[in-house]
């Protein structure tokens, strides 16, 4: 499944707000179209957001191709700044913008048409690299998935959350491809229901047995010895291995620790943020309470009653069995062990 398609001048995004009922594509023709798609979660998942932002800069470059060089360089800087304001927690967004800015700085002597071509190629390279990284993550994580494993996952970490294949779901896909007889429990993942809508959709398409559970069922299943391991993705991983991921991940990690169940994080190294020592410094995105109070257009919370909506939480490194990346695996992560991924 390809959630991101580049047609040469605009970016086609599979609208994840419409799945699984409808497969509709959003044609992003301007930088603002891309920014709005990220902000409203038409595109979501840290790696996918990073790739979309890179293409947003490519769109901006093409639209500014008639500017003189000085104006172009100033304009393209503003494009990156606009995209950086879309969502604060997923570090892949900022990683992609920094990579594009570095490319521009390193080649500022080129003429504007050459810069536009270079920027466009780099965005395509970022998307291609993401698929390759995810496939490598799958291979590195394969050894942690036993035969007949019953796997619990949270949110969506598959093709829809990346440029293709997936991170945590990439490990699950690799296990299936290796002939392991696996099955998956997908947390529904309130309030956006990424697990129920997206993860279940992807796994069902791939003929991987999947059962959707409410987020609050996880502890019961662990207690009843129905879960062999937990694997999730990440939106930001700090220098000591603390990990920000979709709200509800921390609860799963605590439950897994209590029940002696391995808890794995699968993410590309573009998700690492060595500028932050610990997860305490990660900015947690606060989204609209209406996204909690209203489901499918129907109000579930009485009018006038407030609702909280932190989009992410942070799992301390001591609750994580291993962090699986395309460069290798860090078991029992801490600051010293994480340093090998720099």
UniProtKB/TrEMBL annotation:
GO terms for molecular function: S-methyl-5-thioribose-1-phosphate isomerase activity. It catalyses: 5-(methylsulfanyl)-alpha-D-ribose 1-phosphate = 5-(methylsulfanyl)-D-ribulose 1-phosphate. The record marks 155 as: Transition state stabilizer. InterPro entries: IF-2B-related, IF-M1Pi, IF_2B-like_C, Initiation_fac_2B_a/b/d, M1Pi_N, NagB/RpiA_transferase-like. It comes from Effusibacillus consociatus. The gene is mtnA. This is Methylthioribose-1-phosphate isomerase. The active site is at 235 (proton donor). Substrate binds at residues 44-46, 87, 194, 245-246. Belongs to the EIF-2B alpha/beta/delta subunits family. MtnA subfamily.
């Amino acid at each position: 499944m390809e959630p991101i398609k580049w047609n040469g001048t605009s970016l086609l995004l599979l609208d994840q707000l419409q799945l699984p009922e409808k497969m509709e594509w959003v044609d992003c023709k301007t930088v603002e179209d891309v920014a709005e798609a990220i902000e409203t979660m038409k595109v979501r998942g840290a790696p996918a957001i990073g790739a979309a932002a890179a293409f947003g800069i490519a769109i901006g470059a093409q639209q500014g191709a008639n500017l003189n060089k000085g104006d172009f360089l100033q304009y393209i800087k503003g494009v990156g700044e606009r995209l950086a304001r879309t969502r604060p927690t997923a570090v892949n967004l900022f990683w992609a913008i920094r990579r594009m800015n570095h490319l521009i700085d390193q080649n500022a002597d080129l003429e504007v048409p050459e810069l536009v071509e270079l920027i466009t190629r780099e965005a395509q390279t970022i998307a291609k690299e993401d698929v390759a990284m995810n496939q490598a993550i799958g291979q590195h994580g394969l050894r942690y998935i036993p035969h007949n494993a019953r796997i619990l996952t949270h949110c969506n970490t598959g093709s829809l959350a990346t440029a293709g294949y997936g991170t945590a779901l990439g490990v699950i896909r690799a296990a299936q491809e290796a002939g392991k007889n696996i099955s998956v429990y997908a947390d529904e993942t309130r309030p956006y229901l990424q697990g129920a809508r997206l993860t279940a959709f992807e796994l069902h398409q791939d003929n991987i047995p999947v059962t959707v559970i409410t987020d609050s069922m996880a502890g019961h299943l662990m207690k009843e010895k129905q879960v062999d391991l937990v694997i999730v993705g990440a939106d930001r991983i700090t220098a000591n291995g603390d990990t920000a991921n979709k709200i509800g991940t921390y609860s799963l990690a605590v439950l897994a620790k209590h029940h002696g169940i391995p808890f794995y994080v699968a993410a590309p190294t573009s998700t690492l943020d060595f500028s932050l020592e610990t997860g305490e410094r990660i900015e947690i995105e606060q989204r609209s309470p209406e996204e909690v109070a209203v489901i499918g257009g129907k109000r579930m919370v009485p009018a006038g009653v407030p609702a909280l909506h932190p989009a992410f939480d942070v799992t301390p490194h001591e609750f994580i069995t291993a962090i699986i990346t395309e460069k290798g695996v860090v078991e029992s992560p801490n600051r010293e062990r994480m340093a090998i991924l720099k």
